[in-house]
Amino acid sequence: MRFIIVTGLSGAGKTEATRSLEDMGYFCVDNLPPKLIPKFAEACIQSDGKINKVALVIDIRGGIFFDDLFESLNYLKEQDFKYEILFLDSSDEVLVKRFKETRRSHPLAPRGRVIAGINEERKKLREVKDRADIIIDTSKYAIKDLREEMNKHYGDSKQPRKNLSITILSFGFKHGIPVDSDLVFDVRFIPNPFYIPSLKPYSGNDKPVKEYVLEQEETKNFLTKVEDMLEFLIPCYKKEGKRQLIISIGCTGGRHRSVAIANAIYEKLLNKNYNVSIEHRDIKEDVHQGARKL
């Protein structure tokens, strides 16, 4: 049985994530009081395999009942019942915007400022986020993006993933560090193609920028050291049961250096048969009018 507990911040996309799971054949229950989780799990086990994919949405809407969550999770662990926690996160700015667009009040600040409710909710959810198996930051996700991410983690198999899923993520520091990063590498020490007129219109996906960045002595030394570090860290993460590893590579704008170097790291890990994917979060953020289209 695959038993998923879906939680996270209000407005971060739990509803859409649940719809995605339903489309994949999961039996979904929304806002179940945490104290009932053990009873529900036992009922699923007694279904003789008729219910083998389950998702429970648990969040602060449960009020005082939310405090029973960890007691129930500890009970499941004691009974050797396997479960996963999916945590949906998003930036404060995006959450405030979403609440304003829907004209909803925050459940923890029904008559106050939305940001106050968000801050309080982050405090309440800090421990469950620390225990999450997978964290998805939906700040820049459209609905289709979230569905693709859900399918990547939960749509391939009826059994939990045993292999570590690695994502190489390029970004620009001026757009903010990705909140779901596990490892962050700053490559702003490498000469910047942005200041070379012939290279500025291109991105790190294009041959002129790629060659310029990868030919720098600093880049060569950096890639050697990062590769050595990852060769040490990845088996350690696997040993500890980690299922998702986000390796973020940042430069100023997220368009030139970070993209080229992220691609290089991705190719190295792919060639070693790791379960790896790549994303370029900010590659289009700094495309000015008249620049070369990608």
UniProtKB/TrEMBL annotation:
It comes from the Bacteria. GO terms for molecular function: ATP binding; GTP binding. Keywords: ATP-binding, GTP-binding, Nucleotide-binding. Pfam families: PapZ_C, RapZ-like_N. The keyword Cell membrane does not apply. ATP binds at G8, L9, S10, G11, A12, G13, K14, T15. InterPro entries: P-loop_NTPase, RapZ-like, RapZ-like_N, RapZ_C. GTP binds at D59, I60, R61, G62. The keyword ATP-binding applies. Residues 1-155 form the RapZ-like N-terminal domain. Residues 165-284 form the RapZ C-terminal domain. HAMAP family: RapZ_like (MF_00636). This is RNase adaptor protein RapZ.
